[in-house]
Specification:
Elements: E1 2-4, H1 6-12, E2 18-22, H2 29-44, E3 48-53, E4 71-72, H3 77-86, E5 89-93, H4 103-110, E6 115-120, E7 130-133, H5 140-150, H6 159-172, H7 183-194, H8 199-207, H9 212-223, E8 226-228, E9 233-238, H10 240-245, H11 257-261, E10 268-275, E11 280-287, H12 293-300, E12 304-305, E13 309-314, H13 318-328, H14 333-337
Parallel strand pairs: 2-3, 2-5, 3-4, 5-6, 6-7, 9-10
Antiparallel strand pairs: 1-7, 8-9, 10-11, 11-13, 12-13
The structure holds guanosine-5'-monophosphate and manganese (II) ion.
The site of manganese (II) ion has 6 residues, from loops.
Length: 342
């Protein structure tokens, strides 16, 4: 855990500030929940907080309180730049390095003259003036709860804040099932329910928003699944053509990789998704137990993340990407075989 200059940050926040809060590119539930949860809290404390996202996020997160106030850097560039110009501090939430916001926004942020404050649970964070980094945390939303607690303001958590934070903890823990879910996570969740988070509605808003074509896309993904039993590995591919056929929309493939891991005996699950727009194959890696997909993604696919959930990309075509992936597995055969004992 790194806690850097917290006292100084607390002192800085004792006077009204113009705050910008930023999540990573392709924001997920934890990025949206943590940025908006922090925004509601800082607004309530008398600051003016504006959330900026590099690009769009899926429909199933648009109901989160305050979502309508978010500026997208790619679409609402003028408003975003204006907000950055007048800001006195920038909070970076749920990512560890500036490149995670994408080239354009990264260039803008690198010229920023005031201080950055990072709150994040990813490995190997870059250095910023104020930092709260803890890779053992289930989610950045859990850390925002801790942050508010360190600010001695838990009593200020209201229904909006509680709803935002509940959402990110829920999505980043796979609904409270991953190893990062501790008794403390459950205690925080209990407190968020006491403070007004309507758990049944949150689960339903996030999970029961499928379109028919999304289910068909899932069906296609599952029929593309390939199992490599000797490596306890299963992977899924999804081509641009298949995405088009089933009216792919942002977020439609969220969580699909987990089906690979849901197979009995599989400890390494991967999905390869062709992305014509960026000219890459976007990859999600998931593992059970000791096998670190963070290292794997860093070493071979220009990515990173957490030990059991990470992402990366490949500039080869799908066929060559799969060939490269398969060629990497033999050296990990022992690690994969012993990664997770049931
Ligand atoms: P997902 O597979 O859901 O996109 O991402 C899983 C985890 O890996 C997330 O915590 C995400 O922040 C991280 N991640 C995803 N893609 C990348 C990437 O290209 N680079 C890095 N460093 N991390 C990534
Ligand atoms: Mn997260």
């Amino acid at each position: 855990m790194i806690l850097k200059q917290f006292k100084e940050l607390k002192e800085f926040l004792s006077r009204p500030q113009e705050v910008v809060i930023i999540g990573h590119r392709n924001p997920d539930g934890d990025a949206v929940g943590s940025t908006l949860g922090l925004k509601h809290y800082l607004d309530k404390k008398g600051h003016k907080a504006q959330v900026l996202m590099p690009n769009e996020y899926p429909d199933f997160l648009h109901w989160i309180p305050g979502s309508e106030t978010v500026y997208r850097f790619d679409r609402q560039n003028n408003q975003s730049v204006k907000a950055l110009k007048k800001s006195t501090i920038i909070f970076l939430l749920d990512f560890n390095a500036l490149h995670r916001v994408g080239h354009d926004m990264q260039n803008t942020l690198e010229k920023y003259e005031n201080d950055f404050a990072l709150i994040d649970h990813h490995q190997q964070p870059d250095d910023f003036t104020y930092m709260y980094s803890d890779t053992s945390m289930s989610s950045t939303c859990q850390m925002v709860y801790n942050f508010i607690e360190m600010m001695e303001d838990v009593d200020m958590i209201d229904k909006h804040i509680a709803t935002c934070l509940y959402t990110g903890i829920m999505t980043d823990t796979g609904s409270f099932r991953f190893r990062s879910t501790t008794s403390r996570t459950h205690r925080i969740i209990a407190d968020l329910i006491d403070k007004g988070a309507e758990n049944d509605k949150i689960h339903s808003n996030v999970n029961d928003s499928n379109t028919y074509s999304r289910l068909l896309l899932l069906g296609q993904s599952l029929s593309n699944l390939e199992i490599l039993p000797e490596y306890k590995t299963a992977f899924i591919t999804l081509s641009q053509e298949e995405k088009k056929k089933f009216n792919y929309e942002k977020g439609d493939t969220e969580g699909v990789v987990n089906y690979a891991l849901s197979l009995k005996g599989i400890v390494f699950g991967v999905i390869f998704i062709e992305d014509e727009e960026q000219g890459i194959i976007k990859i999600s890696f998931r593992s059970k137990g000791k096998f670190s997909v963070n290292q794997f993604a860093r070493n071979y696919f220009n990515g990173g993340g957490h030990d059991n959930a990470s992402g990366g990309k490949s500039e080869l075509n799908m066929e060559d990407t799969i060939a490269k992936f398969k060629s990497l597995l033999p050296q990990y055969i022992d690690e994969l075989q012993t990664s997770y004992e049931v």
